[in-house]
Structures are given as structure tokens and as C-alpha cells.
């Protein structure tokens, strides 16, 4: 669908939903801004993120089936031109029993994307988490044989990729296979234990055979740490040398206002660019807390307000990373945020259940934060927006 038609549709949705205008514009002042969804019906529609970044890369968001209705749906259509199903395509949710697929939730997201002309990123085909119980077991409950696990992986990938071939333009084929332990390359997952390192090559080949036109990504976290980046580089270089059909690297980008530095970010992008790979930022959020991996209980120090230095620091961080993303135009082929707004981010539950976090560009009332203005305020931004 043509861009302007989509904007008109988004504006129409906002009128139907009766979203009130809060005044303000995307271009003016600090503080919360109008969602950009209301409009008088006569004024030119305000651009959204996808319009500001039209000449750079698609801007996407991870969604679940609740997000594609009501005010969040209106926000998605206003701001983004790509969606990633947050959980519904993962092996556990989509393939709960060996002979049973649960396609309905994904179908609804894909239908929403198709209706509104949004791109769809597929996420993901092979991961060690959110796997179904049956996957690694044989009929007697013991460990499944290598040949059986490989054929399960092949059938799963073939079924899911073929089904969404017309709608999904790229896939995170393998997620998080690199170990966090610097003394080893690959994570000790059941995939590695049962199949060996070749499970990665196989997953890419199965995906490629199911849809030769799809872009295929390896996706991981903590990619900006030089030590982990080096090991990911080793893996991806090997894939390229063996002729495995990989398009690029997905940098998850679950970052915080404390990391990465601009230098770290640029070095990481240079490293993967040097392999001739495309780079997507696949799961962007910027926690206001330092990064922690392990779950723990809520403490009094966790109750902070999003204001003053906290807000300023996040705003400056967002400004920095998007400047870098723009500098890598042509190399970065997509930027996707992980969740729609601070209202419902996974970081409100992880790693500390109940710790309110503020990692996105929209606050809990779905209003644009100052960080939004910081990423859209650049020369040429929105110049060609409808
Ligand atoms: C990883 C996965 C995502 C998601 C996030 C947490 O980054 O790739 O699918 O589960 O963790 O929400």
C-alpha cells in the first residue's frame, strides 16, 4: 500500500478511537508530546518514525496480538513500517506438540501487517529458550537421536517459513548460539549437545530452501562487547566461508543508558560490515538501569522516577545511537524496538519482577518522550514525509 494511504488510514483510526489531541508537535519543545495520531482532519498529518527514517531503514516494533488493537495499533501504524511477532513465532508457542501447530496468534499479526502494508520480520526459528517440551525427547522420554532432532528442525523450519513466505521478508534463523563463557565458542544448548555445531548451518540451509528470497539473520545479545563480538565474528566468518546462506547479523540491542559507548557501537558495526554482512538492530530498548542478567527480588533502590538526569541521560543516549545508525546508512537494514511503549515492556518484569523501567520512545500513556524528539531532530528528517 502506498505510504500516504497508510498515513491517512492511521489518522482515520485515531479519529475512530477518539484519541484526544494534547497539542504540541513532533518538532517543538521538551516534554511529552502529542502522539501525532489525532489531527483536525485538515492539518497535514505529522510524520512518524518511519517517515523521518524513510531514506535510511525500516523502523519496526515487536508486537503481540494485544498490541494490534486499540490505541497501540494506531500508534504502530503511525510510527512504524515493520513488525516482529514478539513471542508467537517461537518454537514453543507456534509448535506446542510434535503434530500440532498453533498458527492463530501469528496469523492475526501477519494479517494486520498485510492489511496495512507493514513488513514482517520472522523471529525465530532455532533457539535454546521457549522450546516445546517434546522437542529434545524421544518417545520414551530420553534424549532424542541426532537424526530425529535434525529432521524435527527441518520440518519445523520448512512448515513455518513456507506458510509465511509471502509476508515475512527476513528471519532470525538462529538466536543466541554463542556462549557467554569466553572460553568456548558455542553455548552448551541441547542443539549443540545432540547435533553438534553443524545445527547452525543446517538451520540456515533449511530456511533458505523453504524461501530462497528471504533474508536470513543470526541474532544475538551483548554483541557490542568486543570479546563476545569476536566470537560471533568467528562463527559468522565460518558460515560465510562454507557458503551458508546468511544475509546478516541481528544485533538485539537490549542496551542501557550506561552502554555501549559510541566508540564501542561504531567498532561493532565496522567489524560486521567488514564481513560484508547486513546489520539489523532487532530488539532495541534502553534500560535506565545498568544491565543485569540474573533474576532477583525488588529492592528499595529500584524505585526511581523517570525525570531529571535519568531522562536527560536516556535522551542523550538515544540521540547518540540514532546518529550512529544514520551514519551507517546502507549497512543497517532495519531498526526494531522491543515492545511498543514503557507501559508494557518486558523490562518491567525482567530481571526484577515489578521494577518499573522506561526503555522506549513512548511513555506509559503512549506519548512521545523527549528521546523521540532527539532521534527525529536531524537535518533532512521528515523532509520528504507526507
Ligand atoms: C531475547 C529474545 C527475544 C525476547 C527477549 C526478551 O532477546 O531474542 O525473543 O525473548 O530476549 O523479551
TrEMBL record:
Enzyme superclass (EC): hydrolase
Active site (record annotation): 283 (nucleophile)
InterPro entries reported in the protein's UniProt record: GH (IPR017853), GH10 (IPR044846), GH10_AS (IPR031158), GH10_dom (IPR001000)
Keywords: Carbohydrate metabolism, Glycosidase, Hydrolase, Polysaccharide degradation, Xylan degradation
Origin: domain of life: Bacteria
The keyword Cytoplasm appears for this protein: no
GO biological process, one term: xylan catabolic process
Domain GH10: 43-378
E.C. code: 3.2.1.8
Catalytic reaction annotation: Endohydrolysis of (1->4)-beta-D-xylosidic linkages in xylans
Molecular-function GO term, any one: endo-1,4-beta-xylanase activity
Record-stated family: Belongs to the glycosyl hydrolase 10 (cellulase F) family.
Name of this chain's protein: Beta-xylanase
Amino acid at each position: 500500500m502506498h505510504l500516504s494511504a497508510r498515513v491517512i488510514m492511521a489518522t482515520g483510526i485515531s479519529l475512530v478511537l477518539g484519541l484526544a489531541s494534547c497539542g504540541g508537535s513532533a518538532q517543538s519543545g521538551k516534554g511529552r508530546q502529542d502522539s501525532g495520531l489525532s489531527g483536525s482532519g485538515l492539518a497535514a498529518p505529522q510524520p512518524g518514525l518511519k517517515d523521518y527514517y524513510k531514506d535510511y531503514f525500516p523502523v519496526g516494533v515487536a508486537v503481540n496480538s494485544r498490541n494490534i488493537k486499540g490505541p497501540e495499533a494506531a500508534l504502530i501504524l503511525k510510527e512504524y513500517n515493520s513488525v516482529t511477532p514478539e513471542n508467537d513465532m517461537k518454537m514453543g508457542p507456534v509448535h506446542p506438540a510434535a503434530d500440532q501447530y498453533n498458527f492463530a496468534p501469528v496469523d492475526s499479526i501477519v494479517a494486520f501487517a498485510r492489511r496495512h502494508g507493514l513488513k514482517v520480520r520472522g523471529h525465530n526459528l532455532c533457539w535454546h529458550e521457549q522450546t516445546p517440551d517434546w522437542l529434545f525427547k524421544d518417545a520414551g522420554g530420553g534424549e532424542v537421536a541426532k537424526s530425529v532432532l535434525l529432521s524435527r528442525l527441518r520440518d519445523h523450519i520448512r512448515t513455518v517459513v513456507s506458510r509465511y513466505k509471502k509476508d515475512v521478508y527476513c528471519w532470525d534463523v538462529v538466536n543466541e548460539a554463542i556462549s557467554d563463557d569466553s572460553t568456548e565458542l558455542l553455548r552448551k544448548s541441547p542443539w549443540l549437545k545432540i547435533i553438534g555445531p553443524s545445527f547452525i548451518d543446517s538451520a540456515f540451509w533449511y530456511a533458505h530452501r523453504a524461501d530462497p528470497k528471504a533474508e536470513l539473520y543470526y541474532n544475538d545479545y551483548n554483541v557490542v562487547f568486543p570479546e563476545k563480538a569476536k566470537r560471533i565474528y568467528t562463527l559468522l566468518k565460518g558460515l560465510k566461508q562454507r557458503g551458508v546462506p546468511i544475509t546478516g547479523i541481528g544485533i538485539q540491542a537490549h542496551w542501557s543508558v550506561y552502554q555501549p559507548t559510541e566508540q564501542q557501537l561504531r567498532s561493532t558495526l565496522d567489524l560486521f560490515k567488514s564481513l560484508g554482512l547486513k546489520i539489523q538492530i532487532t530488539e532495541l530498548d534502553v534500560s535506565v538501569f545498568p544491565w543485569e542478567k540474573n533474576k532477583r527480588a525488588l529492592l528499595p533502590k529500584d524505585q526511581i522516577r523517570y525525570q531529571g538526569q535519568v531522562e536527560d541521560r536516556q535522551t542523550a543516549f538515544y540521540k547518540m545511537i540514532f546518529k550512529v545508525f544514520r551514519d551507517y546508512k546502507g549497512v543497517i537494514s532495519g531498526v526494531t524496538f522491543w515492545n511498543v511503549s514503557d507501559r508494557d515492556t518486558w523490562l518491567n518484569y525482567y530481571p526484577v519482577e515489578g521494577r518499573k523501567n522506561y526503555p522506549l520512545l513512548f511513555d506509559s500513556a503512549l506519548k512521545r518522550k523527549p528521546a523521540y524528539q532527539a532521534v527525529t531532530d536531524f537535518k533532512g528528517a521528515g523532509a520528504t514525509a507526507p
